[in-house]
Structure formats: C-alpha cells, structure tokens
Amino acid sequence: AGRPRAATDAMADATTPLMFEPPCSAPDGGFWREAARVKLHEAKLDETPIDVRARVCCAQNAEVSSAVSLDALAFDDATSEGEEAAGGRGTWTTRGRLTCANTREALATFDRDGAMRAMGREMLESVMNGDAEREPERLRAFAVVAYACLKSWSFTYWFAFPALASAEFKIMSSAVTGMTNEGVDGDIAATCERWIASGGASAWLVSEDGREAYALTEYEARTRAGAKPRLAFADACCAMTHPGWTLRNLAVLASARWGASALDVVCVRARKGRVAAEACVKFTMSFPKFDVETMKVVGWERNARGKMGPRTVDLGASMDPNQLASQAVDLNLKLMRWRLLPELDQEKLAATKCLLIGAGTLGCAVARTLMGWGVKHITFVDSGRVSYSNPVRQSLFEFEDCLDGGAPKAAAAAKKLTEIFPGMFAKGVLMSIPMPGHSVSEKLKASVFKDVDDIEALIDAHDVVYVLTDTRESRWLPTLICADKGKLCINTALGFNTYLVMRHGCGVDHASSSRLGCYFCNDVMAPANSTKDRTLDQQCTVTRPGLAPIASALAAELMVALLHAENGVTTSPPTREQDVSAEREADSSPLGVVPHQIRGSVAGFTQTLFDAPCFPRCTACSTAVVAKYRDDRDGFLTAVFDDPKTLEDATGLTDLLGAVDADDAEWLDDDSDDAFDV
User: What's the whole-number mean pLDDT along residues 505-532?
Assistant: First the structure.
C-alpha cells in the first residue's frame, strides 16, 4: 500500500458522516423499444442477463443531477470503439446487465439479493486485482430487471447501482465547501477540464498544486515519493452539500487497494459542457480499513414514490412507429420553444389547414417546408399528371409516378406526404381551375361550374390558400374567391431569374384603407389566355432550378410569421423607411417582420420587400368584381370566361384606359410640328 495520510489528522478534520446521493436511471423510449425487439426476436424465453451499457456524465445543472442514460445504443457490443462513439467528450460509458423476466411473477420473485451479491463480488474483485484502478467506470456498474408486456407496450423495471459496504466501514467528512476560480481551486478546475477533454477516465488524481492530473494507477508511486494527491471524479450529483453515489466505491478502492485512510476529494461538475469551479465541491474524507469478510452490497433504486419497488412506464402510444415519427417530427419545434422562440404555437400550426392550388415544382416544395413547421393538414389541387420531366424538379414525385401515362399529380403528392410522415392528413383533388379567356361551351358548363362549386368548398374548408399555378389567369378565380371569403391567400410566381412571394389583402369586407393589394392589383389589363399562340418554351415554366425552393420556403415562412403576428392577417408590412435587415424592438411577429411582397432575383442574388394598397379597379379583389360575383356568380363567370374584357368593363378600367388614350391624343395634338421648330 502507499503512504496514507495520518489517520489522527484526518479524523480531526473529518468528523461528520458523509451522505451520498443515489443515482437516477433514465432509460428512454428507444431503449425500451430495442429491449422489446431483443426479447421478442433474440432472447425469447431465455432469461439470461443481457450485457447493456449506459452513459454517465458530470452534473450539468445547478438544480438537477445528471441521470444514468440508456437509449437504443445500449445493446450494441461494448467494444472500445463502440463505447467511444456512444460517449463523447465529458461522457463515459458504464456496463450493466439487463434481465428480461418472462412473466410479471418472475419479476416479483427475482432474487435481488443474490444478483446484488454477485455484482458486489465482481466489483470487489476488480478493486483487488487493479481493474477498477485502470477502468474506474467498473465502479459505476448497474443491473436492471424488467418485465415487458409486449401487448400493451408497458414495461415494469427495477434498477440497481451496487455500492460496497461493511459493518464498520463508516465514511466521515470534513465540511463540504464550494470551490472558486481563484488560486489552487482555479488550477484544479482547469486541470480537470484538460483531463476530461483528453478522454481521461471518470476518476483521476490531481497534484497538490492542482496543476497536474494523472491516472489512479499512479497513486502508490506518487505517495511513496511523498506526494499527497487529491482524488477527483466526475460527479453526477448537483448538490453543494454532498457527493454522488460513485464516491462510496472509490472509498472502498482507496481503502482495500491502496491502504489509505483519508483522501482530499474534488467532486467535478460542469456548466455548459465545461468544468466550472463554482459548481464543484471539495472536502476531506476519512474511513477505516474495509473489511472484506463482512461485506454487504446495497443500491436498489427507489421508485417515483420514494419506496423500495419497481417503476412502470407505459409506452403504448409512443412505441408505435407512427407515434414515434410524430414525436420526432415535433422535436425540432419543441427545442425552438426552449429558448429561441418561446412564443411558437405548435398547436396552431398543427391545426392550420392549407390548400395548395398547384402540385408542381412550387406545390411540392411548399408542402415539404410546411411539414417541417408541423403543419398536418395539406390538400393539393391539380389537373395534371406526372410526366417524365417532373421528378428531378418536383420533390414529391419519383420515376414510378411517370409510368402508365403518369399518376395524377395531386393524388401522387398527397400519397408521398403520408409516406414521408404517416401523421399527415393529406389529400389530392384532380380538378381544373376555370380561367378568364378560356371559353366554356354549353356542353361543358355543368362540369365547369361543378369545379367552381368544389373550389369554393375547398377554400371554405381551409385556413390558408396557396396559389402556385403556372399561368396568370389560373390564379384569378382563387384570388377572387379568397377576397370574397376573407381567406388568407399567398401567391407565389416564378420567372427565369426572378420570383415573387406575396400575401393578399384580408378580403373586401375589411376596411379598404388598411387592405393590401393582391397579385392583380398592379395590372390595368384583365388576365387572358396566356397559352394561346405560344411556343413550347413559352407554354412551360422555364426557370432556374434553385428558384422554386427559395420562393417556396419564403411562402411557408411568410404564413408562419403571419399566424404568429398579434394582428393576424391585418398585420401591416414594414414601411420602406424601416431597416428590416436589423432586429427592431417591436417586430410585427415573434419571428420578425411580415412583409406584403418579397421580390427576388438570383441573377444578382438580391431580395427586396415591397408593399402596395389594394387597387380600387383591380380585376380580382376589388369591391366591384366581388359584388358582381356575389350577385350573379354563374352569369358573371360565364361572361369572364368568354371575354376577359368583361372585368375591365366591370371595374371601370375600360373608361380609365379610354381617358388615358384621349389624353395621349390631345397631348400629341398640342405638340404638333410647330412645337418642335428650330
């Protein structure tokens, strides 16, 4: 044995019985799912203990001690390479055994004392033969006995964290005091941080001056040379008044292996992933010689009620793969609420029903972004079928969707959403949008107005409407209906280099002075048939591939920001004088500003925010057009489908343009030849 500190001096300093905080087990859902798989497919009726492993670390929080964590990786082979992958900086792997009982009765009658004695003998052997010195994680070994009811996916389990004890082995302590960043304390903390960062074991020695750390195996050589090393260990306990459970077994090692009777101890804790001196405690502990002959082993974990007994976890919902997927999808959003965005309303987003008119490049990209925000209700409307040119640009389609004439786009997109995440409520509707300038024969009138009825019903049933179609005129009817019903409408359009994302005003029944313009408010001509007499490149949406993901992401983000704004759809956009690139004290939404229009170009990699009020003579959202739609829907739409100039007449644009032409003619007459005489 090494040269121990004088027992009389130690006992004079250490006169208070030392208390220890028991470990807390934290098996997650992934651990139990893997345990069920192993029991069902591998162990079957065999109750032989299974080797598992857990992760331990220093206390990271001033209020909550670190738990012994087990996840699905607990069942991987406990090789050094696997342990390193499962651990990481500041985390250590400890080994244990899982016994899966075949019946609830077998769990109740399990020989807990015999299992604990067996583990105690193994631990003592590792102390005496030096294995625990070389690998102090052996002193953190654990056992768990469990019964898995695979019908209900409930698990009853009991953890044990063995601690060696004997009749006369009483551990005493001097006053437990906190450390500071000054002097030797600061040096000790820095040295411990370096030890942990270098991948050192979970218990180590620190020199008297606090500037050097070395392995437990060097204790005897150091003490023979006259040194008085401190014992430091990664302490999971957060309390400033006592250490964690592991120190009990380290004291046994010091007594039985080293012959020591006292040691200065540093309980190493961390904050924000680094050793923090102010979180650590120090004291001197003393103890008599450990009596192997009277050894006993304690350490069964108490249940949630503080009683000696097993715990039960019911994972019937979460163990279902669909439920697991739902929890995983929401994880990122839940983490946002921790610090970055406490105001995030997940429930509101999940309940928001989005109608996507157009299931092409834009529709696919918008849907994927909405899913990321936790939107669960998406309906696609499209009349097309998947062609061979689509899958490379439209992210919800695959080659198989192109076969046999092509699957209907709307249905194929909805199907893919549910395959990506089974918790989606996705639907595809095969439908053509009636358009100005596209005449309707008497034979087709019934079918066309059935489509009008259906699109009205769909807009009624959804909270947000995305207009994502290829042509200008196909955007007109959804824009009109949204203006009529006061629905939030987000319009997205692409050019070759440019994109437009905008939200429409809040409906004609809101005050016109605060209503924003729609997609058609900047035009003085009615939408007409844009595919007539056009070449193939003019009929197709020819655009740079990166444009659609950019515009689609902005469209989804615009909706989320607007839904979180205090004034909802009536939220005012930022004015041109405001610097929207910098954070302002009072944003329109917890997520930032809520613009009216976002116009961008990848030719110059620019993006600009615009806003404009509604145009009183707009061919889509003006009061005059909505009034005619309400008064005589079918008659008005028939006239518009046959001749788009009906809209110009209804809004007064015809008279306005005529007056402009007359002014131009008068100006030309006034500026005749003699006006330019030289």
Answer: 76
The partner residues of 377 in beta bridges, in order of sequence, read 353, 425
Q: How many Å apart are CA 428 and CA 417, to the nearest integer? A: 11
Per-residue pLDDT band for 8 (boundaries 50, 70, 90) equals very low
* Mean pLDDT of the 87-106 span: 90
CA-based R_g, the chain, Å: 37
Cα distances (Å, whole numbers) of residue 171 to 4, 193, 250 = 16, 28, 11
Long-range contacts of 101-108 (CB under 8 A, 24+ apart): 101/47, 101/145, 101/146, 101/147, 102/45, 102/47, 102/147, 103/147, 104/147, 104/149, 104/156, 106/47, 106/147, 107/145, 107/146, 107/147, 107/156, 107/158, 107/310
Number of Cβ atoms within 10 Å of the Cβ of 138:
19
The 3-class SS string of 32-71 reads: HHHHHHHHHHHHCCCCCCEEEEEEEECCCCCCCCCCEEEC
Q: Please tell me the pTM assigned to this model.
A: 0.58
Q: Which residues pair with 263 in a beta bridge?
A: 285
pLDDT for position 540: 53
In the sheet that 353-357 helps form, which strands lie side by side, from edge to edge? 425-430, 377-382, 353-357, 464-467, 488-494, 498-503, 597-601, 606-610
Per-residue pLDDT at 285 exceeds 80: yes
pLDDT at 400: 94
pLDDT above 70 as % of the chain: 87
**In the predicted structure, residue 586 carries a pLDDT above the cut 70:** no
Long-range CB pairs of 328-332 (<8 Å, 24+ gap) are: 329/371, 329/374, 329/421, 329/423, 330/374, 332/372
Instruction: Please state the separation of Cα 126 from the chain's center in Å.
Output: 43
DSSP element (H, E) containing 139 = none
Q: Residues 254, 158: contact at Cβ < 8 Å?
A: no
pLDDT score, position 332:
77
Interacting residues of 288 by C-beta distance below 8 A, sequence separation 6+: 168, 169, 170, 255, 261
* 217 DSSP assignment: G
pLDDT at 665 over 60: no
Residue 65: pLDDT above 50? yes
- Summarised one tens digit per residue, pLDDT across range 411-465 is 999 999 999 998 899 999 999 999 998 888 889 999 999 999 999 999 999 999 9
Contacts 24+ apart (CB under 8 A), 408-416: 408/382, 408/384, 409/359, 409/360, 409/380, 409/382, 409/384, 409/385, 410/359, 410/380, 410/381, 410/382, 411/380, 412/359, 412/386, 413/359, 413/363, 413/364, 413/367, 413/380, 413/382, 414/378, 414/379, 414/380
Tell me how far apart the alpha carbons of residues 155 and 139 are, in angstroms, rounded to a whole number. Answer: 27
What is residue 72's three-state secondary structure?
helix
Nearest to 477 by CA among 615, 633, 353: 633
How far apart (Å, rounded) are the C-alpha atoms in residues 621 and 627? 10
Q: Which one, of 151, 258, 157, lies nearest residue 203 by Cα? A: 258
Could you give the CA distance from residue 531 to residue 541 in angstroms, rounded to a whole number? 11
Predicted local confidence at residue 636, as pLDDT: 94
Task: Say what the pLDDT of residue 676 is.
Answer: 32
Catalytic residue numbers, as ranges: 540
